[in-house]
């Protein structure tokens, strides 16, 4: 299916919805790292997967946290959400919920989550600072995030950074590593561990690298 449409009339979230809904029934890999492999989810924890796609990582977390825990999957793609909900129903997984919302607007209470994971999603966000502020807000003190994402080797030229198709294709929305880490620090995550990091590779019209980060919300810190 050709997901491309006339982009001049739609928003970036619409472009992402169209592209990933078209991919919801495919078997292609859409990740850029192994965030869930570093998550170390514990029994009874409450977790969130930002950009949960078909729900595969949500289901892995749901098994790890058990019946006393709970996992939210959040996505903007109608097709991905439908696929995830049908799988959960088929497998009779009850400790999960899938929500449609923008990354910048997590519909959960302050200090309510033990763990947030995300895989190749935050680069899509129009306001990445708002996303990281939200992550900080909803994590409990001592809660942690594990995020796999991409960063660009150089600042993305405006002709691509403003191209909604290119953003939806998971490369033109990327920022440099320095800018990425600055955003985390500004949100309140002062110490970040890099679990894995790739060499630069060509994606679309630019060079990017992928990495997997972990950070903890320390007590007493506030969003700046």
Polypeptide structure, described:
This protein has 224 residues and is α/β, with parallel strands linked by helices. It has one domain: Rossmann fold. The chain is 30% helix and 25% strand. It contains seven helices and eight strands; from the N terminus they run αβαβαββαβαααβββ. Strands 1, 2, 3, 4, 5, 6, 7 and 8 form an eight-stranded mixed β-sheet that branches. Strand 2, helix 3 and strand 3 form a beta-alpha-beta unit. The radius of gyration is 17 Å and the shape is globular.
- Which percent bin holds the helix content? 25-40%
Overall domain count: 1
- Output the helix-strand order: HEHEHEEHEHHHEEE
The fold-level CATH name is Rossmann fold
Instruction: Provide the residue-averaged pLDDT.
Output: 92
Beta content: 25-35%
Q: Quickly count the helices.
A: 7
The number of E-state strands comes to 8
The level-1 CATH class: Alpha Beta
Shape, please? Answer: globular
**CATH superfamily membership:** Vaccinia Virus protein VP39
Main sheet characteristics: 8 strands, mixed
Compute the CA-based radius of gyration.
17 Å
The low-confidence runs, each spanning 5 or more residues with pLDDT under 50, are 1-10
Just name the CATH architecture.
3-Layer(aba) Sandwich
Q: What is the straight-line distance between the termini? A: 43 Å
Structural class label: alpha/beta
